[in-house]
Amino acid sequence: MRGTRWQAVAGLLLAWGLVAVGGKVDLSGPTQMGRCEEAWFTIAFTADVVQTASAIVFTVALPNAGFAYVTGSGLITLGDGTPIAAEPAPVGLDLVWDLDLILGVAYELPPGETVTVVFALRTGCGTISGTLGARVDYEEDGVPRYGTDSQPIEILPGALVLYKEPSVVPAAVGDVVTWTLVVENTGLGPIYNVVVTDVLGSGLAYVSSDPAGDNAGQATTWDKSHAPSLEEIAPGQRVEIELQAELVACTGLENRLDARFGCD
Q1: By three-state DSSP, how is residue 214 classified?
Q2: Under the phi-then-psi rule, with left for phi > 0, alpha for psi from -120 to 50, and beta for the rest, what region is 92?
Q3: Rounded distance, CA 64 to CA 174, Å?
Q4: What burial letters (b/e) apply to 23-60, b meaning 16+ CB within 10 Å?
Q5: What is the mean pLDDT for each group of 10 consecutive residues in the chain (264 residues)?
Q6: Can you name the residues that pair with 54 across neighbouring β-strands?
């Protein structure tokens, strides 16, 4: 009895050894992004070396609602190298590419060949870190199978620090004083579309600035149209603006500097 039982188990193990291991799913792309940025990702599905894969459906699970698909970025490359632009079907936070629906035929991926989906994601002003997921559902000889992969995406936020140089200017009424307005990114990621506004007190009169901004009375504003470097400030970088004003009174000598930034 013992010998018969062992022979049955050995036969079962041999049968298992002949069963295909299934296809492989690989998700690739950056593991870090800044806010208000776009990045490209790729899902590659490779069929088993001895099995044809059919009924292939790609599903991307976004990390959170702060990530958005970039419209028009989806591109499928079939096993024979044929590229096909294709938009996903959104289902909640999922993006779904059903190859049979997109192609209009029952597509079959030959053994050992690879089909890929490339797409871009955009982050917003308040996006937080999360994990991007990928799943590929398919069939082998009518048997449903699936494979998965995932990767974390760390969000690197930027941060603004504003100051003036010099912080104190000795002057008398009638003098023209000069400040350097400094906008510095002390964060971990880039910041975009910075808008700087300087408001002079009633005892100061605007004279000029370099670069020139939009002046309206006591307020002067600069954006990327005046200083291209305000469009993107990388971590550790600073943008300087020179401002000149005339003292016209002994009071109201405050000078307030504000800035904002964002995706738009």
Answers
A1: strand
A2: left
A3: 57
A4: bebebebeeebbbbbebebebbbbbbeebbbbbbbbbb
A5: 36 36 91 97 97 98 98 98 98 98 97 98 97 98 96 96 88 93 96 97 96 96 96 96 95 93 90
A6: 108, 139
